[in-house]
Amino acid sequence: MPEKKHKVLVANRGEIAMRIVQACQKLGLPSVCVYTKEDAHSGHVALARSIGGEDAVYRISSYHDANELLSVADHAGATAVHPGYGFFAEDYRFARRVSERSNPLVFIGPSWRIIRSLGDKINTKRLARSLNVPTVPGSDRPVYDEIEAEEIAETLFAFQAEQGIEHSVVLVKASAGGGGMGIEEIHDLDQFKTVYRRIRNYAKRQFHDEGVLIEQRIFDFNHLEVQVVADRTGKSIAHFGTRNCSVQSTGRQKRIEVAPGFRPQEVHYAFDASKVLKDIVSYSLRMAEEVGYDNVGTWEWIVSPMGQPFLMEVNTRIQVENGVSAAISRIKGQGGVDLIREQIRLALGEPMGYTQEDITFEGVGIEYRIIAEDPANKFTPWVGRIDAFEAPVNDWTSTHTQIPQGEPYVIPTEFDPNLALAIIWGKDLAQAKQRGMEFLDKLILSGQDQTGDSLRSNVRFLKEKTVTLLQF
Amino acid sequence: MIDVKTILEEIKAAPYEEIEITAPHTGVINFEITTPGVKVAGSSGTYREKPGTLLAAITREHNAKPIHASVNGEVSHIRSDLDGKFVEAGEPLMVVRHFLTKDEVVEAILQKVLFLFTAPERAKYYFIPSADKKIKASGCRSVTVKPGMELFIVSRMKREKPLNYEGPEGIIYAVYFDHDQNVDMGGPLIGVCPEDQTGVIQDVINRVQSDWEERS
Question: Can you tell me the distance from the alpha carbon of A126 to that of A130, in angstroms, rounded to the nearest whole number?
Answer without folding.
Answer: 6
